[in-house]
Automatic annotation (TrEMBL), chain A:
Family classification: Belongs to the ABC transporter superfamily.
Domain ABC transporter residues, every copy: 12-261
Organism: Komagataeibacter intermedius AF2
Protein name as annotated: ABC transporter ATP-binding protein
Gene Ontology cellular component annotations, sorted alphabetically: plasma membrane
Location within or outside the cell: Cell inner membrane
NCBIfam families attached to this UniProt entry: oligo_HPY (TIGR01727)
Chief localisation class: membrane
InterPro entries per UniProt: AAA+_ATPase, ABC_transp_ATP-bind, ABC_transporter-like_ATP-bd, ABC_transporter-like_CS, Oligopep_ABC_C, P-loop_NTPase
Species classification: Bacteria, Pseudomonadati, Pseudomonadota, Alphaproteobacteria, Acetobacterales
Automatic annotation (TrEMBL), chain B:
Keywords from the named record: Cell membrane, Membrane, Transmembrane, Transmembrane helix, Transport
Family (UniProt): Belongs to the binding-protein-dependent transport system permease family.
Single GO biological process annotation from the record: transmembrane transport
Name this polypeptide is given: Peptide ABC transporter permease
One cellular component term from this protein's GO annotations in UniProt: plasma membrane
Family annotation (Gene3D superfamilies): MetI-like
The keyword Protein biosynthesis is annotated on this UniProt entry: no
InterPro entries: BP-dependent_transpt_permease (IPR050366), MetI-like (IPR000515), MetI-like_sf (IPR035906), OppC_N (IPR025966)
Segments passing through the bilayer: 26-47, 119-145, 157-176, 188-207, 219-237, 249-272, 292-317
Length: 329, 333
């Protein structure tokens, strides 16, 4: 299975997906630039990259929370690219999202119990009928248990909780309808480091217990390492390297991934000094010609300035978009 | 983590009420408003039992007992020739406390009766205006697109007309001829006329902030989260957006009432609002205009009443705005 030819069993497949925004003066900002990838059931795909590289937008496109400019999104083998909000609604229970800002995504005027009951009230139960209040109540208690919060939290308001607890509430709400796919959009980046670990562990634990499929968006490689079986590295709206977590993070072949992994502080003896990555990420309104990374690449050659590299296999299941991939040790 | 044994916390409205109660300025303002309102509601009792007058009837030829002396209500002018008549000035006693107007009517009694009309009209106009503005603002903000464009341009057109000019033009039409809407006949001297006019002219002023709030809320992450959960649009509007707009409405309420009170007074002063012989603070000022040099109290008293109430409403509005800000009041800093 490779990223460019999605296997039929893929839970979620994205083909040549692009998302552009009009930014005035006839200019367009390309947040996502023709990405293709597929996510297998039970897989944990980590999406990493600097802020502004389009990883959150890609996550939102996957769940059709924003309109798609070009390309296709397939969920459970079904094309959902152009489905109306109404037609998407029956699919919503199976694809959920955990948002980054744990307080902004909880209505401050509603109690936790009310927020948690909402998806259970609007979607019919397994028997196709409205869930009885007793079922909803039981389900909410189970969910609170699942995320290690006391049932008494249901009577409280979101602002009474800490960031980590609020994120647990968000996770509980996303899991209320037993989804197959969970897109987590930087779910821990707004949290304290000590709390981050707890939430990351919760994600890993839930995956093991419920057999969830994750798309885990993050800019922190240390976080991604724990909850990903596969990692896709994004730069300026495109995937530059994708492959099994260990392969990508320990033996990166794309200079950008190498710079990212080198930026993670870790105990390492005798390692080669990290190539410093200068400058800022270029504007997605005016993307550089050729390789999108050549403006910051320490190894850029003439060819990189003219010719855009496509993703190509480097090792089994490991692809990179680079003309001159780093030698693998 | 709050201990599980703690009682169920109060809702955001009750918390806001608690914060408001701890704001001295807002409580003073509220107290003043309540005092003025209660006093105005007691106007008939004051007129009957204290002032012992009929504030609607001219008593040009009457006399009144003051400290055992009989005093003319209409007295010769103070000028050397004693030409013309001036009404009795403030006696600072139960009868004619603030003096009489040019028709010999008790100013204090009329002030209280006028307050009933002024407060009723401004409160009703504020509520009606908020209802209209909320409908326009929520529909425009939530649906966006062509609906928003049409409603917003309509508001812009109304906005472009100076508010008093607009109100005066409407009043001239409605006061000069009674309106017939199906089975309903709106008489020219009905209090509904100023209520409708004032409510209408201030709709754009209230609709714009409401629309802005709804548009911001539509992009709020908790609304996107609700969409992601598959909550239908109408339910998002009712359960997630409207409750968050309510705070904006409640905050706008007192400010709109203050504006409405000023507009009502202005229209009544121009004889385009409350129609004689019904009093309102605006009409009393008009009555006092001719007496401004000899008996200034006739115009000053209702003027002070307007200033007091408008000031109190503004202070209350500020207090409400601060108290209702969920984020400021929450534990999050």
């Amino acid at each position: 299975m490779t990223a460019t030819s999605p296997a039929p069993a893929a839970l979620l497949a994205v083909r040549n997906l692009s998302k552009t925004y009009r930014v005035g003066h006839g200019q367009r900002l390309t947040a996502v630039d023709g990405i293709s990838l597929s996510v297998m059931p039970g897989e944990m795909l980590g999406l990493v990259g600097e802020s502004g590289c389009g990883k959150s937008t890609l996550g939102r496109c996957m769940l059709r929370l924003t309109d798609i400019s070009a390309g296709q999104v397939m969920f459970e083998g079904r094309d959902i690219t152009t489905l109306s909000e109404r037609r998407l609604r029956p699919l919503r229970p199976r694809m959920q999202m955990v948002f980054q800002d744990s307080s902004a995504c909880l209505n401050p005027r509603r109690r936790v119990g009310d927020l948690l009951a909402e998806p259970l009230r609007v979607h019919p139960g397994p028997d196709g009928r409205r869930r009885p209040a007793a079922d909803i109540d039981r389900r909410m208690r189970d969910l609170m248990d699942l995320v290690s919060l006391p049932a008494s939290a249901l009577a409280r308001y979101p602002h009474e909780f800490s960031g980590g607890q609020r994120q647990r509430i968000n996770i509980a709400r996303a899991l209320a309808l037993s989804p197959r796919l969970v897109v987590a959009d930087e779910p821990v980046s707004a949290l304290d480091v000590s709390v981050q670990a707890q939430i990351v562990n919760l994600f890993a634990d839930l995956q093991a217990r419920l057999g969830l499929t994750y798309v885990f968006v993050a800019h922190d490689l240390a976080v991604v390492r724990q909850v990903s079986t596969r990692v896709a590295v994004m730069y300026l709206g495109a995937i530059v390297e994708i492959g099994p977590t260990d392969s990508v993070l320990h033996h990166p072949v794309h200079p950008y991934t190498a710079a990212l992994t080198a930026a993670v502080p870790r105990p390492m003896v005798g390692a080669r000094p990290p190539p410093p990555l200068g400058g800022d990420i270029p504007s997605p309104v005016n993307r550089p010609a050729g390789c999108r990374f050549h403006t910051r690449c320490p190894y850029a050659q003439d060819r990189c300035r003219e010719d855009e590299p496509a993703l190509r296999p480097i090792r089994p299941g490991h692809e990179a978009a680079c003309h001159f991939p780093l030698a693998t040790s | 983590m709050p201990a599980p044994t703690q009682p169920v916390p109060p809702g955001p409205w009750r918390q806001a009420a608690g914060r408001l109660a701890r704001t001295p300025s807002a409580m003073v303002a509220l107290g003043m408003l309540v005092a003025v309102t209660v006093a105005c509601l007691l106007a008939p009792i004051y007129a009957r039992d204290v002032a012992r007058t009929n504030p609607f009837q001219s008593t040009v030829a009457g006399t009144v007992m003051l400290d055992g002396r009989e005093v003319d209500i209409m007295q010769p002018d103070d000028n050397p020739l004693h030409l013309g008549l001036s009404p009795i000035g403030p006696t600072w006693r139960a009868t004619y406390l603030l003096g009489a107007d040019s028709q010999g009517r008790d100013v204090m009694a009329r002030l209280l009766y006028g307050g009933r009309n002024s407060l009723l009209i401004s409160a009703a106009a504020a509520v009606l205006c908020l209802l209209l503005a909320a409908t326009v603002g929520i529909v425009a903000g939530f649906f966006g697109g062509i609906v928003d464009t049409i409603l917003s341009r309509l508001m812009d057109i109304m906005w472009a007309v100076p508010v008093y000019l607009f109100a005066i033009s409407l009043s001239i039409v409605m006061v000069s001829q009674q309106m017939r809407l199906g089975p309903f006949v709106l008489r020219a001297d009905s209090l509904l006329v100023p209520v409708l006019i004032i409510a209408l002219v201030y709709v754009p002023y209230a609709a714009r902030p409401i629309r802005g709030r709804v548009m911001a809320l539509r992009q709020a992450e908790f609304v996107i989260a609700a969409r992601c959960l598959g909550v239908p649009g109408w339910r998002i509007m009712l359960r997630d957006i409207v409750p968050n707009v309510m705070t904006t409405l409640v905050t706008l309420g007192p400010l709109l009432m203050a504006l409405a009170l000023l507009a009502e007074s202005a229209l009544s002063f121009l004889s385009l609002g409350v129609q004689a012989p019904q009093p309102s603070w605006g009409t009393i000022i008009q009555d006092g205009e001719g007496l401004i040099y000899t008996r200034p109290m006739v115009a000053v008293a209702p003027g002070l009443a307007i200033v007091t109430v408008v000031l109190a409403l503004n202070i209350l509005g500020d207090g409400l705005r601060d108290a209702l800000d969920v984020r400021d009041g929450g534990r999050r800093s």
